[in-house]
Specification:
By secondary structure, the chain is mainly β. The protein contains no helices and four strands. Helices cover about 0% and strands about 45% of the residues.
């Protein structure tokens, strides 16, 4: 992955869980290549992105906690 990211695959209908606690900074379907996209800011220099979502249960500004 460019930028040192990690690409993980899932299954249709599978729940998505945040990699760590953080705040949702972007939710939209603005890019055809990514479908519904959610971006979470975990720290000043750490983001995670979740693409190709069928639905979104969060919105911009949502605070998420870590689930183990």
């Amino acid at each position: 992955m460019p930028g040192g990211g990690v690409l993980l695959s899932g299954h249709v209908g599978q729940d998505i869980r945040a990699a760590a606690a953080g705040r949702v900074v972007y939710t939209a379907a603005a890019f055809a290549a990514t479908g519904n996209l959610i971006i979470i800011k975990h720290a000043e220099n750490l983001l995670s992105a979740y693409a190709h979502n069928r639905d979104s249960l969060v919105h911009d500004g949502s605070r998420l906690r870590s689930v183990k």
